[in-house]
Design brief:
Distance between the termini: 30 Å
Number of strands: 14
Bound molecules: zinc ion
Structural class: alpha/beta
CATH topology: Metallo-beta-lactamase, Chain A
CATH architecture: 4-Layer Sandwich
Number of domains: 1
CATH class: Alpha Beta
Radius of gyration: 20 Å
């Protein structure tokens, strides 16, 4: 039977407290940088990727390089006793290095004895858009190679291409990557979303209600609002202020949310030379927040040139101007 990767009730007594806790959405940041990977260890250098956990439903949001660490965490749970991530790495490198046909990699992994045959991994991937900093972690996400992984991908169209087409053409295609998309071991399904769409994701207790709105960004980007068990989370990555219709969309997505996870890449000074790059300033984010009145804001997708003090100053500026609790995401932080 397919098994959700997180929160097993096995061994945990389901008291009222644990039930209430399970019905509270959670998340973890695996990549908090925008634009490019950097070597920073204080805030983190991986590009943008975080999880959203609604009960037992795990959603991986965007596929920046932070996704590599999620893949390793998940793979660990499906390894046979005594096997390590290093074993899997060595096996894959040896298999491809020996000139084997990449289309047999999935089956070979299964037959390697490293993966527990009885476990299946059900994942939902959601995508804001497909710029490289939100995309290329998928190549090193180990569960994507395993026949024991089922991945449901949800995302919009960008320049007329859906997320599967983008992955096939840019991520998993020789000579950029040795294993073509169609030879990945995982089973993958697709849901293409439209601007302004409302849809539901099946889940325990009740379906997750999702609302999608387009945001102002080169080549297009989508913001999401999730409602589940009385809790609301908005996720708005990669958007620029100053366009009335799109500004309204941000406010609609943030409206009264318990948590807003949003990019805020620039100070006013940084923005002076970066207009049109598709990212928002702390001042503009504060303006949206005053209108939308969310309960809490977490900034992410930090500029690769922004040091700790700058990232902190951006969050402090939003909090000072909007009087809404604002923190900045650090790689590994949970919420
Ligand atoms: Zn980005
Ligand atoms: Zn972008």
């Amino acid at each position: 039977m397919a098994k959700s990767p997180a929160l097993s009730s096995g061994g945990i007594e389901l008291t009222q407290e644990t039930m209430i806790d399970m019905m509270k959405p959670k998340g973890k940041f695996y990549g908090v940088r925008g634009s490019f990977v950097i070597g920073d260890t204080k805030i983190g250098g991986h590009t943008t990727c975080h999880t959203l956990q609604f009960g037992r439903k795990l959603i991986v949001f965007d596929f920046g390089s932070g996704m590599i660490d999620i893949g390793n965490e998940l793979t660990k749970r499906y390894l046979m006793p005594g096997k390590t991530i290093k074993d899997i790495d060595a096996f894959m490198n040896q298999f491809l290095g020996a000139g084997n046909d990449p289309k047999n990699l999935g089956l070979a992994l299964l037959e390697s004895g490293y993966i527990n045959q009885d476990e299946e991994l059900d994942l939902t991937f959601m995508s804001s858009h497909v710029h490289g900093d939100h995309l290329f972690g998928a190549q090193a996400f180990k569960p994507i190679f395993s026949p024991k992984t089922n991945i449901h991908m949800i995302g919009g169209l960008h320049c007329g291409m859906n997320i599967h087409e983008v992955m096939e053409q840019f991520n998993f295609r020789p000579p950029v990557f040795p294993v073509p998309w169609k030879f990945l071991g995982s089973k993958r399904t697709l849901q293409v979303i439209n601007p302004n769409e409302h849809f539901e994701i099946e889940n325990d207790f009740q379906p997750i209600k999702v609302w999608v709105l387009p945001m102002n960004h080169p080549n297009g980007s989508y913001g999401y609002r999730f409602e589940w068990c009385g809790h609301t989370i908005a996720v708005t990555l990669d958007h620029e202020h100053g366009h009335d219709e799109y500004d309204r969309n941000i406010v609609r997505l943030w409206e009264g949310a318990d948590i807003v996870v949003t990019e805020v890449q620039y100070t006013a000074g940084m923005y002076d030379t970066r207009k049109g790059y598709g990212h928002i300033t702390a001042e503009a984010a504060a303006k949206h927040a005053i209108e939308a009145k969310p309960k809490r804001i977490i900034t992410t997708h930090h500029d690769p040139d922004a040091d700790y003090d700058t990232v902190q100053e951006i969050a402090r500026t939003i909090e000072r101007k909007s009087r809404i609790q604002t923190t900045f995401a650090v790689q590994g932080m949970v919420f």
